[in-house]
Amino acid sequence: MPTATGSLPRFRQPRRPQLAGFRHVVASLWPLSDRIAADAARAFYRLLPGRTGADGAAEALRAVSLGLRGVYPDRPDSWASLVHSDP
After folding, report:
1. 5 assigned to some structural domain
2. What's the pTM value of the predicted model, to 2 decimals?
3. Domain for residue 44, yes or no?
4. 55: number of Cβ within 10 Å
5. 35 lies in a domain?
6. pLDDT for 50-78, tens place per residue?
7. Phi and psi (nearest 5°) for 25?
8. Which residues belong to any copy of the CHAT domain (predicted)?
């Protein structure tokens, strides 16, 4: 459903890469600070090799979100936006 600007609503944007052929997508539902986004990406890719498949990516992202929540308990805008989407 296009918005007035012609783009898809934010909650549907993680699906765009899947339409382009990517099976699994990790995304943020809203903008994060550069520092938090970089920390989250580093932590995710550090945790990912020990896990396999879609469940592994989801588990790694959950661990990242919980870690950010521990650091920023009063700032859900810093950790609640991270999502994993799979087919």
Report:
1. no
2. 0.73
3. yes
4. 11
5. yes
6. 776 667 888 999 999 999 999 999 999 99
7. -130, 130
8. 18-85
